[in-house]
């Protein structure tokens, strides 16, 4: 795969190279003219400058959103928080996800984890927490570029022996842009050089100030590898979730977002979805991005077949006519005819746009180059 440099992007966006470098600097990314941009930096710049890009996203988003009826406030009930883990390379994101899953899921549930659906749920004190299992910042970049917001709470992992690093700062910027609360997980506390005070000190620069120092940011010290501090972290997540008053109405047709999707040789298009509102049921007529179908089968994060899934539940479905994209919205319709009509309309529109907008800069075009 190729790449795109600061200068090349500037040309594409019809901006001065210096403007791009300045924007990047304000976001904590130091770049030179000929430096290649990663996907995160690219998304950042596009959302800063990309009028065209944003307009496209708005239209696309509005399209499906217009089919979602407004909620009756009396029917709203508490729902589990959806949590994303972010942080610098090697600071322990994967280890933390694994240790949460293994202490909280495998122990109690027969069979353990049998398949990967990009998200999973754990239970703590009779409450559920949903974790997005997407690597790094993907949950914020590719999803937000499609106008989707799935994360309620961001966990920022910072290694206690390494401190704040470039991708730590990127993660902070993403979480702030998405306006989600940040919990700091000071990891690797078992290591000899662990210095949590330094981590706290460094993060004050980004307005992440611990309660002890007069701020309101929650810091949890843990060792992902030794599985220490996991309960504290989950408790804090539930505390923050309570303050956020996360609500949904289980008693309605479902809508939500695609976490990941692929073509399975035997089963056809398979999509991992996060139900964000309502209850998704087997048999439901559904439009997913520019694809459609009927929910043929549904499995949960333990690989167990289920017939329905409520708010904040990650599941995998089959029955779509094509493979949707991560970050696509899905909406359930009353009948199959309507789902088909709207799905086909969207498919056609997508084809038209592809033909008609070759010369325009879109996020997808840019991403294809990297
Ligand atoms: P990327 O996915 O590459 O960004 O890394 P990551 O953030 O997922 O880090 P990962 O979980 O792969 O951990 C990186 C290294 O740190 C591995 O060798 C882990 O074993 C180690 N590690 C993670 N957590 C801890 C911890 O709590 N203590 C110690 N001592 N090592 C840890
Ligand atoms: Mg990892």
Q: What string gives the helices and strands in order?
A: HHHHEEHEEHEHEHEHEEEEEEEEEHH
Rounded mean pLDDT score = 86
| Overall outline | globular
Proportion of beta-strand residues: 15-25%
Numbering strands along the chain, what is their spatial order in the largest sheet? 3-4-2-5-6-7
Report Rg. 21 Å
The tally of beta strands, per DSSP, is 16
Spell out the blueprint of helices and strands:
Elements: H1 6-13, H2 17-26, H3 39-49, H4 51-65, E1 77-78, E2 82-87, H5 93-106, E3 119-124, E4 127-132, H6 138-145, E5 153-159, H7 166-177, E6 182-187, H8 196-204, E7 218-221, H9 230-244, E8 247-248, E9 255-264, E10 268-277, E11 280-281, E12 285-288, E13 291-299, E14 308-309, E15 314-320, E16 329-332, H10 336-356, H11 363-368
Parallel strand pairs: 2-4, 2-5, 5-6, 6-7
Antiparallel strand pairs: 1-8, 3-4, 9-10, 9-16, 10-15, 11-14, 12-13, 12-16, 13-15
